[in-house]
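ARCHIVE CARD
Drawer: 12
Card no.: 0347
Subject: one protein chain, sequence and derived structure
Cross-reference: see card 0346
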Amino acid sequence: MADIQEKPDLLDKLGAYLNPALIFALLALVLAGWGWWQTRLELTAIRHELSEHLTAANEAAQESRILSQQTAYNNRDLTLRVAEIQAKLADSQNQQLALEALYRDMAKSRDDWTLADIEQIVLIANQQLQLDGNVKGAIIALQTADARLQSIDKPQFTNLRRTLNADIHRLQLLPQVDTVGITLRLDDLIAEVDHLPLASDQEIPIKMTKRSTPVRTDEATRFSAEMWQELKSLVQIRRLDTPDNALLAPEQSYFLRQNLKLRLLTARIALFAHDEVSYKADLIAAKTWLSQYFNVNDARTQNSIAQIDKLISSPVSIRLPGLEQSLNALRASRLARDQ
């Protein structure tokens, strides 16, 4: 019973201590402690997380600094390489400009050399045309000059090519004179002069006198008769058809042949000069000398006279134009290039 009485007392004491305000305060304290603890844990976690973030940020910053340094080094190297490339590019541009200038100079020099060569060709063609009357040679020379200009293919030479083609057309319209063929025939006649027989060299057959049957005489009489026959054979009587065909001494025959050659040579010179009057006069004189002083019965003399007749009938007088227009156009082109 005593025990039962003591228990209610204890309960009463506990009830006195466990009043609602105290319980509420204890609960509040517990809740506050638990909140503080939770807050502490959260702060610790946040601090730890923040520390990790800071560590990561430091590592990132360090890596960034390293990358920045590498980037700076790379930029420095890149700047140096760009400077080197720019320097090489400047050198390349300077070399290109120098090469372009050299090419222009070489092209100009090449054109100047070509124009000089063409001018020389036209000058030679003009000389041959005026001195030798070589129309074909002049046409070939002008065509060669036009082909050289065509290979250059530059518009500034159009007028020059037009002038050259005009001269070519004008020369092609000229009547053709076979200057080379006539020259060769004159050369053949000159070479044949030394082989033509003279009229004074004709052999007249000697009538052989019949020897009578020798009569027996003494040796002196027979020797005298034979000597007389030999003496008669040494003397020949010739009949000349014309009084002009006198016997010519060897030195006179030599000068006759040389004068005939000279006549043919002067005819050749007149051919080159297109002097038809002098050309025909020399050929007529050569024909007259052949007919007068040479053996006209010989086939060689007859052939020479026939060749001279053909040459006399060949016209050689042609008014040849000059190439001054082409030469003036060439000089104008060179002067324009120099300016």
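Annotation on reverse: Confidence is low (pLDDT under 50) at residues 203-216, 240-246. The two ends are 151 Å apart (CA to CA).
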